[in-house]
Amino acid sequence: MTFTDAFFDRLSAMGYDPRLGTVSGSVRIDIRADGGLRQWRLDIDRGHLRVTRDGGPASAVITTSERTAEAMATGGMNGLAAITRGEIMVDGDLGLALRIGRLFPTRAEAATRTGGPDGGAG
């Protein structure tokens, strides 16, 4: 299991995040790795989260490399900075894509976690 997989598993288990209480829409994350494509879809309904491995249409589509996705999932990279460097491409609703950045751990939050991608203690 990758850190990215563990990140989406945690979101799925959460089911709701109050930081997105006013947000509704769908975001698909396309992760390019080893000549292939892994896709995750996050449907948000006023903070209620539903995570699937769906490649269907979405309000915002985020495309990135596996390396960048892993760095985001571990708090090692800021999403806005990655967008400005061209490491993340966003098609569609940029505002929605930026809002889901709240779900990714910060460096400080990541530093409090121990263990590997399976979650560790936090």
Automatic annotation (TrEMBL):
Signal peptide positions (record) = none
Q: Which Gene3D superfamilies match?
A: SCP2 sterol-binding domain
Residue stretches making up the SCP2 domain: 15-104
What InterPro entries does the database record attribute to this sequence? Answer: SCP2_sterol-bd_dom, SCP2_sterol-bd_dom_sf
Output the superkingdom of the source species: Bacteria
Q: What's the protein called, per UniProt?
A: SCP2 sterol-binding domain-containing protein
Q: Which organism was this protein described from?
A: Micromonospora robiginosa
